[in-house]
Amino acid sequence: MKELMNLETNPPPGIRIRSEDCDAFNEWLVDLKGAENTLYEGEEFQLLFKFNGRYPFDSPEVTFTGSNIPCHPHIYTNGHICLSILTDDWSPALTVESVCLSIVSMLSSCKEKKSPPDNSLYVMKAGKNPKKTRWWYHDDNV
Amino acid sequence: MEGDKTLATSASTKAVEEESLAALNMDEAILSQRRGIEEQIASEQQYLVSSTRELSELERDYQHHGEFSARIQELKLIYGCLRRTRADGNCFYRAFGFSVFEALRKNKAAYQAFRKSITEAKEYLVIIGYPTFTLEDFYENFIEELDKVCDGEGCPISQLEELFNDKGMSNYLVVFLRLITSSQLQKEQDFFINFIDGYSTVKEFCSQEIEPMDKESDHVQMNALTSATGVCMRVFCMERGQYSTVTFPSDGKPIIHLLYRPGHFDILYPSADATADSPTL
């Protein structure tokens, strides 16, 4: 996959693709660093990208994984992320890099670390695949 | 008193939880219904772009709507036949792409001009910071197919039909036409912002209504895509009251013709030269 090689050779700051753990066609692991001067400075996170056969027409399934899931009003403790470009507003012109940058920016604009208000219920009931949830996107400021 | 209050709180929490649970189950139901509709459309319309059809076929669509049969008679005065496109939300871009490729393959000057405008539209997206990686990929693919179609004497119509009915290839072309539309809207945002409802910026409108697949089109998209590409297009709008035709730009000589019915676009061929292989240019 051309996109994988591109991200390996020119990664944006704070983003590193773990190519040793990537299955080029189905699943990628990406390391993400919290940006400087934000609540997440110094923290490291891991994102799991899963691609289906319809990519890039269909969005990848993106979740936080590993031991450190960021505490954020749009990120559930099971790793699911409420971000419109991951479902309804996905465009084939977007890339893994642009998804990572959107997530870093979402973290960076956060003013208070807290879980989503309906976290416990959602985590209990939601399936494995976040794309099976119809998300309501209501807050563009966080 | 304390006790009563606790009871009341937990009861209302329970109601909220039940409501959210019901909402989660409903999500699944709505998503599966949406998939069901897509599958049904795909099984009824095997094509993405059909072969040429008689206009009288439209009469069957409107058997129980008398007022439309008058519209169809009016349509027959101007047009000879049509091609249907699948109603998957991409019909405008697919109809536009097919008919432009068909018109350009026998018209070298228009082909070169079109090639130049889409390259400029792509360059504008690079300037405003679109990921070049994917953009160049869609652009190169589009140019490659366009060149193949317009090479020499122009490819046979069957090759064009094959190209636009191969789902992967066809959608790749649709993505690029969506990007061109987005480019034009953003370049002329001071103008287009006046015609956009429910969005505070043109950029936001583009990322939610233009760039994602399967999102339907209307007047704004028609205006943007034709002005970005310099293609003159006439649209026959068939609605309940009476028909109207709109030409983009209004003083141009149309090289492609589309039929618009609320929410859907098909391709039309003028009757003066009604065979699909040589539409009037």
From TrEMBL, chain A:
The protein's Enzyme Commission number: 2.3.2.23, 2.3.2.25
Gene3D superfamilies attached to this UniProt entry: Ubiquitin Conjugating Enzyme
UniProt xrefs under CDD domains: UBCc_UBE2W (cd23808)
Occurrences of domain UBC core (ranges): 1-142
Transmembrane segments: none
Pfam families according to UniProt: UQ_con
Single GO MF descriptor: ubiquitin conjugating enzyme activity
InterPro entries per the UniProt record, alphabetical: Ub_conjugating_enzyme (IPR050113), UBC (IPR000608), UBQ-conjugating_enzyme/RWD (IPR016135)
Reaction(s) catalysed (UniProt annotation): S-ubiquitinyl-[E1 ubiquitin-activating enzyme]-L-cysteine + [E2 ubiquitin-conjugating enzyme]-L-cysteine = [E1 ubiquitin-activating enzyme]-L-cysteine + S-ubiquitinyl-[E2 ubiquitin-conjugating enzyme]-L-cysteine; S-ubiquitinyl-[E1 ubiquitin-activating enzyme]-L-cysteine + [acceptor protein]-N-terminal-amino acid = [E1 ubiquitin-activating enzyme]-L-cysteine + N-terminal-ubiquitinyl-[acceptor protein]
Keyword Transferase: yes
Keywords annotated in UniProt: Transferase, Ubl conjugation pathway
Biological process according to GO: protein ubiquitination
Protein name, as recorded: N-terminal E2 ubiquitin-conjugating enzyme
Organism of origin: Bugula neritina (Brown bryozoan)
Lineage, uppermost ranks: Eukaryota, Metazoa, Spiralia, Lophotrochozoa, Bryozoa
TrEMBL record, chain B:
Active site per database record: 88, 91 (nucleophile), 264
Catalytic activity of the protein: Thiol-dependent hydrolysis of ester, thioester, amide, peptide and isopeptide bonds formed by the C-terminal Gly of ubiquitin (a 76-residue protein attached to proteins as an intracellular targeting signal)
Matches recorded under InterPro entries: OTU_dom, Otubain, Papain-like_cys_pep_sf, Peptidase_C65_otubain, Peptidase_C65_otubain_sub1, Peptidase_C65_otubain_sub2
Keyword terms, alphabetized: Hydrolase, Protease, Thiol protease, Ubl conjugation pathway
Site positions for Interacts with free ubiquitin: 260
EC class name: hydrolase
GO annotation, cellular component aspect: nucleus
Swiss-Prot/TrEMBL GO biological process terms: protein K48-linked deubiquitination; proteolysis
Domain OTU: 80-271
Documented EC number(s): 3.4.19.12
GO molecular function: cysteine-type deubiquitinase activity; ubiquitin binding
Top-level taxon of the source organism: Eukaryota
Signal peptide range in chain numbering: none
Family: Belongs to the peptidase C65 family.
Protein name as it appears in the record: Ubiquitin thioesterase
Organism ancestry: Eukaryota, Metazoa, Spiralia, Lophotrochozoa, Bryozoa
